[in-house]
Amino acid sequence: MENQVTTNEILEAINHFAEKVDERFDKVDDRFDRLEGRMDNVEGRLNKVEGKMDIIEGRLDRIEANMVTKEYLDDKLADLRGDMVVLTRKEDHKLTALVEILAAKNVITPEESARIISMEPFGKTI
Q1: pTM
Q2: Greater confidence, 62 or 5?
Q3: How many other C-beta atoms can be found within 10 angstroms of the C-beta atom of residue 99?
Q4: Where are the domains of the chain?
Q5: Rounded to whole angstroms, how far apart are CA atoms 8 and 40?
Q6: pLDDT tens digits for 38-94?
Q7: N or C: less crowded end of the chain, CB within 10 Å?
Q8: How far is it, in rounded angstroms, from Cα 115 to Cα 109?
């Protein structure tokens, strides 16, 4: 009978086992609480990053809205070039008229007149 276990011993063993299980669950709960705190910290940091990304996205949208495209710039430069050609041609007509007047009054020689008129950008031969 010495080897027989009493009911009290069984209850004590079950109680001891239950206490150990409770301790382990408490440790697991503590770990989960710490992990939850870390996750809250990470979530807060991600929210800050998301806010910054929203600001950057808004700034990029404004830049894209105001940005000049290559096609637009090419068109504007072509228009400017055309305007400059028209203005230069008007000046050339004035210069040609002046040279003809000077040549008619014998202020410059016909060779000098021909040389001036043949100069770029709209040179002509007389």
Answers
A1: 0.47
A2: 62
A3: 20
A4: 1-67, 69-126
A5: 47
A6: 999 999 999 999 999 999 999 999 998 888 899 999 999 999 999 999 999 999 899
A7: N
A8: 10
Continuous segment of H or E residues that includes residue 121: none
Confirm if 119 and 105 have CB atoms less than 8 A apart.
no
Taken in order 81, 86, 89, 91, the sign of the CA dihedral is negative
40-48: Cβ within 8 A, 24+ apart: none
Contact indicator for 19, 25 with CB cutoff of 8 Å:
no
Coil vs helix vs strand at 105? coil
- One-letter amino acid identity for 100? E
